[in-house]
Amino acid sequence: MGDKQIQLTIHWDSKSHQKLDFYNFYWKKPTGLNSLQDSINLGSDNSVHWYGGMNTHEQSWPIKKNDYKSTEFVTNDVYQTGVTGQERYWLSSKKVVLNVPWSVPLYTSLQNNELGLQSKLDEDSSFLLRNNFLEYTLAVPKEWDKISLKDFHQECFELFLAAPTAHPSLEIINKPIWSTWANFWKAVDQNGLLEYAKQISDNNMPISQLELDDMWTVSYGDYQIDKRKFSNFSEMLKKLENEFGIKRLSAWVHPFVDADSEIGKNPELRNKLFVKNRDGDVPHVWWWDCPVKPGDPSKPVGPTNPDKKEPCAYVLDVTNPETREWWYKQLEALKAEGICTFKFDAGEINWLPHNYVLYDGAYPNSYGKHYAHFASRFGSAVENRYGSGTQQTNFFTRTIDRNSYWDKDGGLSTLIPWALQSSLHGYYWNLPDMIGGNGLNHNESNIRGEPPEEELYIRWTQSNTLLLAMQFSYPPWHSKYGGEVLNIVKKSLELRKKWMHYLIKNVRKAVEDKVPPMWWASDDNEALTIDDQFMVGSDLVVAPVIKSGQKTRNVYLPEGNWRNGNNVSEVVIGPTTIKDYPSPLDVLPHFYRTDSDDSGNGSSSIFGSPMGLFCSIISIIISLYFLN
């Protein structure tokens, strides 16, 4: 072939794996051509379903509803870009896996049931290596009819991805986190925090750790507790423990340093610590606490007249070991003052300066990988937002802020699909963020919102009840709510307590077996499309209500005998779909296998049953594999 021809090499590998065949596609473009593009038809009927790839703000499961235009496959804040790329792994229900290596400067799109793959050289690109090729691998089973979808995924998973090597803090699984974020926004201070702790204690609510969120330092980047807001920090910590039984205080941190902070104004540190551009300069970046000014007031508001984001900060280059050690010392000093652990925020590529250059990172997502590994130095009670290639860490990876909506737009309906997507990619330890969302549906700017309506708050609590972790901010005794909200939340927490031993057994087994805590229990086509229920292990089906005003719902049960968790005298034989299961506001629909219950008096008996422990082998009602 001549220099101006596109070269395609297809390598068929049928010998390296006992159960799988691989087809590697390698496209090379000639000099002068800046992009190569291929597309995969995802199927137009309802018999083919795809999972994985990009996460989107309006996450769906399967992904064919996640339409988006051509976008760099790198991590992004979905509030800014709508999509984020964590792992380049896609799975088809027809037992095909697509994997794209990180060496490819990949752009993807999902439109009209087609997944677009594009390798592009662009001066404005985030990709640091100027690779001139498009490469991807398709994996298929050697014997299609002799392997389940679950087992096929596990074979591919071990080759292309990774699983955790240890579990996160069991204390956080056992008891909820309580955060100041949505409830206080930036207005938190010592008196407010102590009053919040008192309310948690007075209402007999369980708590693993109290999370101090935005605006507790002197300025962003100066890691000093603001004495104007917290006049006696050590005394406050004593009161939290001695009067309210709260032993762990975590604090919100991020990689941004305000330009007018003491650290930001230090030229020596500025040149050592922060991300530089290709010219060797240290430019300002914009992040969500920087100013936003309206566009031209003489023109109509819209895409052609956008708001103006004013950069105001620098961003730490966590790929630089000198930066990591400097930051580590800052955070260790805060631990010496009594802060137990940290909530690490941001870490996505879109926060880096234009034409950035990392100290150590061949690929854009190297930044998030270093960031997550840095966070892991602070233990298993850490909360992190993003990583890439960091599944082996033992902390919670948080679903990015959810909005206080019911349907899509980052609302309740996206909670389970996001967690399923995370689990597919190996991020088992999912923290589903604040119960009820952050209130931002009431305003579009970065100012304090309002709590969600009662019904949404209750249904959100129920959706979280049997997931891996729970996190409250808006309290169920908020002045906006009546007493019914608190009563139903307490009922949900009692249900969680009954199943806690089973949850933890599955978490431990996931580490041992390298299988996600929730997975497919059936290749049935109906199960493959369910996006609003999930299984914990193989024995517990959970089907929360996620639609406004809904008082009944359909519940899918895989093969087996299932006892109704809300009416233990009722047993249902699966596979079947229960139509119009009664779901009044105080009811969380859930079923458990009868062969895991040797006393017949409810879910708590599963913990004493050898069969119950043995059967914590992990699987899910397809659409829902997710203790994470």
TrEMBL record:
Protein name (Swiss-Prot/TrEMBL): Uncharacterized protein
Keywords: Glycosidase, Hydrolase, Membrane, Transmembrane, Transmembrane helix
SUPFAM superfamilies on file: (Trans)glycosidases, Glycosyl hydrolase domain
Matching InterPro entries: Alpha-glycosidase_related, GH, Glyco_hydro_31_C, Glyco_hydro_31_TIM, Glyco_hydro_b
Location of the Glycosyl hydrolase family 31 C-terminal domain: 516-595
Domain Glycoside hydrolase family 31 TIM barrel: 183-503
Parts of the chain that traverse the membrane: 606-627
Entry keyword Aminoacyl-tRNA synthetase: no
GO molecular function, a single term: hydrolase activity, hydrolyzing O-glycosyl compounds
Origin organism lineage: Eukaryota, Metazoa, Ecdysozoa, Nematoda, Chromadorea
Protein's organism: Meloidogyne enterolobii (Root-knot nematode worm)
Family under the similarity heading: Belongs to the glycosyl hydrolase 31 family.
GO biological process: carbohydrate metabolic process
